[in-house]
Amino acid sequence: MAKRKTNEAGSSTGLRADVLRALGVLKAATADQIQRLSSPHLTYRHTTKKTAAARKEARTASHRGALNDLRRHGLSVDGGRTRGGEEVRLLTKDGLAAAGLELDRGPEEMGGMPKSAGRSGASHAMTVNETILAMIRPKPDPDLVAGEPAEAVAAAQAAVDAPDGIGTITSYATEVALPSTGTWKNPGVGGAWADIVLIAPEAGLPLLFIEADNCTEEAPIIAAKFDKYMRHFHRKAKDTDGHEKPMWRTRWSAPDLRWGDATHPPVLLVFHQVGKRSALKQMERVADLTREHWQGQWAEGGFRIYNGKMPIVATTLDLLREHGPAGPVFWRFGREGRQNLWEAIGNPRKDAFLARRSEDARRRQAQEAAEREAQRPVCGDCGQKFTDDRWKASTAVEWDHGDSHPHLCDDCKYRALEAEQQARVDERECQEQEHQEQEAAQAPKAGGWLGRRRRS
Questions:
Q1: Which of 299, 300, 266, 270 is nearest to 283 (CA)?
Q2: Does the predicted model carry a pTM greater than 0.85?
Q3: Residues 205-239: pLDDT tens digits?
Q4: For 116-161, how does the pLDDT look when each residue is reduced to its tens digit (9 = 90+)?
Q5: Last residue of a domain, one of 328, 359, 375
Q6: Residue 323 covered by a domain
Q7: Which structural domain, as residue segments, surrounds residue 397?
Q8: Is 259 exposed, middle or buried, given 0-12, 13-18 or 19+ CB atoms closer than 10 A?
Q9: Among 265, 251, 293, 164, CA closest to 207
Q10: Are 338 and 425 within one domain?
């Protein structure tokens, strides 16, 4: 089929849109990363090729074609090569605007370009991209793998059955300014730049900041980022309603106390063991240097409260790739052991304490209700239990006298009162009748002296 002149590389409109969305978030990426993110089913195609290079060449061909079309239209440029020799693609200014349309984001929401993009192998940008891929865990469509060798189909199904990741590419943003001075559009010097921002309220993560590190920076430099984070979190600004609130809340919404009573949003540190520094040692050192920002206070219930603090959580890219966000691979600074992401940024000890307290209260209420029920009066006539209102009325004392029939339920009391009233009426009528009979008996008879005189 002849290639269209406007799309010389033969890519479809939909495929180019996928590439624009991916690059609009990642900013600098390889065709392999874009393919794994946008069309994960292709990872399980072309498995009969003899070499890994040939397989990658085949599965990324469509996306490389789309990237070439974008380059011909001035929307992307070559950005050098990774240390592994893969070509990196970047968006131009026009490309960033086009990606914003695909993502439905304004220019101020697109973020900046990644650090050292296109230079020195773009190692940091590649780690950021791999972190997003490990968080999303794109799942292939099994129907699009049908007909492939059994091993490929089984591998695709295993990916489908694996624990889910979080969100889609549209849930993420990179190189987002967190100004401590200046504005969102023109941040001042000295503010933080978040490597990744995740917004996934549907997954219980309304806002999560992510920092990626290749184990090349010294721990004090990493720790200093959290000073900048805290400066931004403390900054106030007026919202559209005229009320002052934390500046970050004017851009992102997140329910209060969503992070286990921590005041500020959580930050996840992902270490990639590329540099010479040990990832585990880096975590420990950064934790020591940032203690003032994350350490809570013990409460009587055996848990910590984190008012005024930010949750800081760390893991490695290898663990995140293997287990995903649902795996127990996250270390919350100040805690022992590893947890899944939601437990790590939350306060499960407090949740458990509150649940126990709630359960204890429920049991007490149930016991008290059972004891009260055992004392509930029973109608002396019909045997039915008193209602709460009848029970209360039967024990009430008004004007120095109590209920007239405290041993009867409402219905039986009503019938008893009717019977008593009828008895009084009958008694009255009986008395009247007796009275009339007595009067009649005492009246003079017509056969007296007057009657005898008439007969004479």
A1: 270
A2: no
A3: 999 999 999 999 999 999 999 999 999 999 999 98
A4: 555 567 899 999 999 999 999 999 999 999 999 999 999 999 999 9
A5: 375
A6: yes
A7: 376-436
A8: buried
A9: 265
A10: no
